[in-house]
Amino acid sequence: MLERIKELVELLNRAGRAYYQESREIMSNIEYDRLYDELVALEQESGIVLANSPTVNVGYEVVSELPKETHESPMLSLDKTKEIEGLKAFLGSQTGALSWKLDGLTVVLTYENGELTKAVTRGNGEVGEIITNNAKTFKNLPLRISHRGKLVVRGEAVIKYSDFENINAQIDDVDAKYKNPRNLCSGSVRQLNSKITAERNVNLYVFSLVQAENVDFNNSIMTQYEWLKEQGFDVVEYKEVDAGNIEDAVGYFAEAIKTQDLPSDGLVLVYDDIEYGISLGRTAKFPRNGIAYKWADELAPTSLIEIEWSPSRTGLINPVAIFKPVELEGTTVSRASVHNLSVMESLELGIGDKITVYKANMIIPQIADNMTRSGNIIIPDICPVCGGKTEIKKINDAKSLYCVNENCQAKKIKLYSLFVSRDAMNIDGLSEETIEKFISSGYIKEPADIYKLNRYESEIVGTKGFGRKSYDKLWSAIEASRETNLVRVIYGLGIEGVGLSNAKVICKYFDYDLERMRNADKEILVGIEGIGDVIADAVIRYFANENNMLELDNLLKELNLVTEKKAEVEAIFEGMVFVVTGSVNHFANRNEVKDKVEELGGKVTGSVTSKTNYLINNDINSGSSKNKKAKELGVPIITEEEFIEMLPKN
Prior knowledge:
Shape: globular
CATH architecture of the largest domain: 2-Layer Sandwich
CATH topology of the largest domain: D-amino Acid Aminotransferase, Chain A, domain 1
Number of helices: 24
CATH superfamily of the largest domain: DNA ligase/mRNA capping enzyme
Structural class: alpha+beta
Helix content: 25-40%
Strand content: 15-25%
Distance between the termini: 70 Å
Number of domains: 5
Largest sheet: 7 strands, antiparallel
């Protein structure tokens, strides 16, 4: 029993880290819940609870570069039930508020003297990330309110399904599309660049009031909600319930979610009587004043027909389950991604197996369970497109299948589709189908060949589905794309893990100097904000490949790269050393402060020494180690505003 407990703890923690920190899945939600419930039962039966069990740990350590802050009061998870009877038992004779459990990112907001002064993510429940500038871009969040005392509220930052679909529709590369609104929201809220957050249409819905100075709410949660609405907040939709009407209220939400634009993975029930809820206290993980109700996903039984192996431009071959069509949430579905080999093996899938399928958050088809578990799927040792060898690789604890043939046609088709996409070379008229035809006809063997398609003008004009008008339009788009910039080229090369945002970061770091980028070693690359070991290794591999470099050089001969223009500025900080610490308000993040110092000739280091000229810290009176060291050495401590005063006036 103890060994099984250890196994479950390790597996669930790995799945949790993958989902919450790395925005990827190594098992389905249903599988996670099943294993979690098994762990709870074993812990109760044995009386053994390991220190790192997910049943007692609230979350996972924050891993981004955003500044951190400890919450004044810990943010605990809620206990859960899947039965309406469980809600009735929790409620007893009390009145409660039943509301949506939104599926986004929890944020704590602090207002002082009517102004939003701080926003912090939930993080691991104890320590969160400061995202104040990003929160100020949330579409529906009031920056000023009428209440002048200190106010602390908690809300859920979410991206609506409609916005999620619009954002994905603008991404031509299938591999780069976002998996679900929750992952997109998490990445958007925790951006180091608040401009990106603003572009993502993030909304925030308040679900809890932590503190409101000098306001009497008559001991009622629902009175708090109504007062918060008066302050300008969007409060999560709720219903007043008791034991007599809670079943009808659950039915209302169950019907409403079918057309709900906000992602929700269940409901939350809290006691309206604030003092009563507080008097119940808390467990190590759960407060006792609330409980979560998880939707019972609509499951449909079916049988597995085959596993389709779908290659991508990176060589990754994704397993896709094809099953007998079934009706789910009002639509017919017949296929679902299995994510990777690890998930496929955990389900022990086999042809003909009796499986159940569902839609995660009522959108994305997933396999819930496999009743037969024959495990007879044969993993192909050759690529279904090119016939080249395949290889199983284990990356971040997940096993996946890859085609190792560099000349695989599937890689080329997907790669060229990315190359001509809107955010890369922006060549309209080259669909995947057309690219496949041109590759098969020998017109395109490398990216530079796209700019030589006029050699085959007569052949293309005579191609079925083409004609003079289509050719002229295509060639016009190709000619227009010759004038471009390095960011578009680097993104269009399809280097594994280098999306548009990473391409921008890398190019900016090297001052748009391709030669510096080509010759950079791993130590330099991992020093770039947001670039870790995996991406750094992929960049090095790409530039170390002689064929890649030959093709890149040939491509550059066809292009006119527009050089990024830098404004001429006086190096007023020449020879000066700065240290930046704490949160910032006027800049998007501390890296922007660093960029400004370096732009003006200065240098930013991580620790205060006798060579430091200024320590920038908005909390001048804090007892931080950097402040203490600065005072010991007589280094001036200045605020962000004082630093801005030092900058040249335009």
